[in-house]
Model the fold of this input.
Amino acid sequence: MRLSWDPESEAFRAEIAAFLDEHTPEQLRDGRDWIGEEADEVPGWARDWQALLFDSGWMIPAYPPELGGRNATPLQTLVYQEELAARGVPRSVHFGGYGIVGPSLLEFGNEEQRALAPAAIRGDTVWCVGMSEPDAGSDLGSLSTRAELDGDSFVVNGQKVWTSYAEWAERCFLYVRTDPSAPKHKGISVLILDMDTPGVEVRPLRHITGNAEFAEVFLVDAVVPRSNLVGELDNGWRITMGSLAHERGGLWLEGVGYAQRALDGLVTLVRDRGLAADPVVRRRIGELHEEVRSIRALGYKGFASFAQGSSAPEHSYMKLAASELRQRLNEFGMDLQGAYATVTDPELAAQGGRFQAAWQVSLAATIGGGTSEVQRNIVANRVLGLPRG
Amino acid sequence: MVDFALSDEQELLRDTARSMFTRECPPSLVRDACYDVTPDGPATARSFHATHLSEWSALGDGPLVDLALFLEESGVVLAPGPLWVTASWALPLLRAAGHPDADAVAEGTLSATVAVADAAGVWEPGDHDECWFVPHLDQVDRVVFLRSGPSVLVVDADGLDSAPIEALDRTRPLWRVRVPAGTAVPVESGAVRDALDRATVGLAAELVGVGRWLQESTLAYVAEREQFGKPVGSFQGLQWKLVDASLHQERAAAAVAYAAMCVDADDDDRSSAVHVAKAAAGGAARHWARTGLQAHGGIGYTWEHDLHLRLRRAYGGDHLLGDADWHRDQLAGLLLD
Ligand SMILES: Cc1cc2nc3c(=O)[nH]c(=O)nc-3n(C[C@H](O)[C@H](O)[C@H](O)COP(=O)(O)OP(=O)(O)OC[C@H]3O[C@@H](n4cnc5c(N)ncnc54)[C@H](O)[C@@H]3O)c2cc1C
Done:
């Protein structure tokens, strides 16, 4: 056990740090977290940023250069993730393409489909991921959007919901039911859907933040060529989220980096509001610091297992722990502002309304990507080995 | 940037300790040494220490990471005797004072405790006439009185004017003792702080062991116990409580290992890491004690069941050397003052 990596890894750190210091776009620099903006398409600066990362081999470092990487080792990848997380800099403003679609195409696609991966990762093609439906959320396996094979094409009917980036997207990684008679996890397939296919209608949905980031996607007799089937027919369940296997050891760093920055902001806020001597406030700050630091230690402990090739049960806790902590940090940041707690005017609220804005965004963290309740079920059954209910 | 991978030697140390404790320290021994109200209790604890633990005292001279691995295992079984206080606290203080007994303590031929707190339970060197909350006084050969200056006064444990404090956790007997006359030897305040950090992390490591036992026993019990025709561990209302306690436990274990590394490296993050470790470990052990008791139902509330031995140690250990809230307040001090 030790507190620093080897000199080669630290040299690697210096390289990515210098790159980020030089090239990070202004919009991502203020130390806050980019929380989305109203736009009809991916903003130009965000496209340029993602393309630059790709071309410089800094998009997914573990990949070879032609896929936006530099054949980084697991430890180098972690160092890279540390540097991004410490700055709160996202690689992309649409996670689906590089985080889910690109890696899944590479792993499960045929040659032609694998050729779509570089553009997905570079952000040249914007993708959305169509999993959730009005009647299939946590229970994704019950999805009912139907794709019927008719000669060389599928005819798709149904509805997706909460589909992030659907308005921006040119393509959708679409989960459909191809065999309604099979047990529910068996008859699912994944299709590549062109969003301009006739019969596809996108209706933007506003978040509670007021921004329209996700959407409903309606599918009425949309025709998808059979060649757009990813992997085998009826075997789509295994093409599930989080396929970025190389980065799984450090995915938690983003949440922990976020929490640390929020805590730093809280410490400043406590001082600015003259509350540094208040015993109740002090106790809360101490408690939050304990949580941030112990969760961070847990993430690193999990990385040690990951790097040795074993499963890291520690990491099953990380999304749950970090998302709930993030809400508490932001809520406390509001509480500390007294009557201004719910004032969102950046001129009036402390630190430009950072806590008010971030709190609203953080409310999604315990829902999207698997709710906290579902995370607890997963830990109960898979990590603690408790009998299923 | 923290590497948690254990070296081969560390894995060996942990495995050796684990199998030794499983073999030599059954629950009946803990009960004989600590809970049977017979005059033999302290003798059993002493002899267990002399036979099985004293040889490990030298860990107190080595990396805290190793000592913490060992103490976690001893916390799992609630090993009786003064190893924690001897190795993690008294030994570094004796070394700092250049005391001639230090070698004998490291070799395991002498054991020692530390007397520092006043009647108010503040663990800071002072000039009070009486020290409180002195652990294992009846099981050791020497007492290291930590006095203002700072300075230390080392005396024979026999013949001191002392009295036991009746308390919840009898696996760690606490005493009050009058400070005897004698000349205290000055020690560097940095060394005193270092020793206190080692004692705090060592205690936290034991608490991680206590939490681990509670977690393992509870998970086994709820998988086996059936009500309404199903294992009670299949009920979601219970499962989520177990998940939350397990998360607390996992972060405590990680925080303790991290703190031990920081102390060994004298890292800048050291003070914060030590407070985080003790706050998390005390909190997690208590969390598991409450959750484990609830999940066991009536059986867990019986004297016969071993759960209450851990419940007592969890609360006792949390309140020794500052409870979780005290350590959180220290963290606030580091951040805000
Ligand atoms: C900001 C945001 C972005 C999203 N982006 C996408 C996207 O791009 N693509 C996509 O496909 N989806 C997306 N989603 C959808 C997301 O995956 C779902 O919202 C999530 O899986 C929960 O499903 P649901 O909303 O239908 O809630 P439900 O599943 O209906 O859950 C309702 C409540 O019941 C609880 N519950 C459900 N099952 C259990 C159980 N077994 N035990 C205990 N409690 C249970 C839940 O935890 C929740 O509290 C997004 C969601 C958000 C908030």
The mean pLDDT of chain A is 93. Residues A 129-132, 137-138, 162-164, 214, 364, 367-368, 371, 373-374, 377 surround flavin-adenine dinucleotide (CB under 6 Å). The domain at 126-233 of chain A is CATH 2.40.110.10 (Butyryl-CoA Dehydrogenase, subunit A; domain 2).
